[in-house]
Design brief:
- It is a single chain.
- The chain is an alpha/beta fold.
- The protein has a single domain, classed as Rossmann fold (3-Layer(aba) Sandwich).
- Helix content is 43%, strand content 16%.
- The chain contains 8 helices and 7 strands; from the N terminus they run βαβαβαβαβαβαααβ.
- α1 links the parallel β1 and β2.
- α1 crosses α8.
- The protein binds nicotinamide-adenine-dinucleotide.
- The site of nicotinamide-adenine-dinucleotide has 28 residues, from α1 and α6.
Length: 254
């Protein structure tokens, strides 16, 4: 991983847990200074305390455009112009066509797609020319999943807006890619399972009644697996890659 050559700090949202925390850890191991954003103050502090590089933390709701704009401005004032942004904050409340409320739908769009949009706005203003953005979406953006109606719609919107914004940012040499994980062993995933063992088994081996094929590689992703892909896409090794949607799901989107 060549992130040690990133020419500046990186903003990571969702840094209090799971994939965002694993990404912050991997970037810090390469010497990258970080601005960490999340609504969870305790988790954010735990992540920051575990890192060795300079970190700036901002407790904020990524759906709040004014708060995100202020957080980005504070981060740059503290650490300097950004080399990159990782939008990993996200929310998932299961729901079917029968029981998804208007509020569920609006909240998923506001946090998942709106949160990514706010980060992309921050990137436009504060990322140096030649920098990079990675937006964490989901394989549910492209693969229908039962019981994930609002989430899937919000992630499809997330992937589409990231690629459209990336087309504008390309004129400044700023690359913008989308990572679409499958089942990844984080608190978000674990919260879906009433019975962790049965849930993991269904994820791995498939569930015909849910039209899931399982995971061909035979394992859940570790958050570090997704973080490694994000760090690659941020790094100079990916300098000719932009506007891509990359499944990181062990083949589950087959
Ligand atoms: N875990 C999976 O199986 C999986 C699969 C596909 C996609 N994803 C996506 O990966 C990303 C990271 O998820 P994770 O699995 O690490 O989950 P997680 O629950 O461990 O972490 C999500 C983080 O986002 C933060 N967050 C949620 N809403 C926020 C808001 N409005 N403002 C600020 N912070 C907020 C949470 O506090 C938490 O720290 C999400 O976008 C999620 O949709 C996860």
């Amino acid at each position: 991983m060549n992130s040690s050559r990133l020419p500046g700090p990186v903003v990571v949202t969702g840094a209090a847990s799971g994939i965002g925390r694993a990404t912050a850890t991997l970037l810090a191991e390469s010497g990258v200074d970080l601005a960490l954003l999340d609504r969870d103050a305790t988790g954010l502090r735990e992540t920051a305390d575990s890192l060795t590089t300079s970190t700036h933390t901002e407790v904020c709701d990524v759906a709040d455009s004014a708060a995100v704009a202020a957080a980005f401005a504070n981060a740059v004032a503290s650490l300097g112009p950004l080399a990159g942004v990782v939008s990993a904050a996200g929310t998932l409340t299961p729901g079917t066509l029968a029981d998804t409320t208007d509020d569920d739908f609006t909240r998923h769009l506001a946090v998942n797609a709106g949160g990514a949009l706010n980060c992309l706005r921050g990137a436009r203003t504060h990322v140096r020319d030649g920098g990079a953005v990675v937006v964490v979406s989901s394989n549910a953006a492209r693969v229908p999943r039962t019981g994930m109606l609002a989430y899937a719609a919000s992630k499809a919107a997330t992937s589409a807006l990231a690629r459209s914004a990336g087309l504008e940012l390309a004129a400044r040499g700023i690359r913008c890619n989308v990572v679409e994980p499958g089942s990844t062993d984080t608190p978000m995933q674990q919260a879906l399972w009433a019975d962790a063992e049965a849930g993991a088994r269904a994820a791995l081996h498939g569930s015909p009644e849910e039209f899931r094929i399982g995971i061909p590689l035979g394992r859940l992703a570790d958050p570090a697996d997704v973080a490694a892909t994000i760090c690659f896409l941020l790094s100079p090794a990916a300098r000719h890659i932009t506007l891509q949607q990359l499944f990181v799901d062990g083949g589950a989107s087959l």
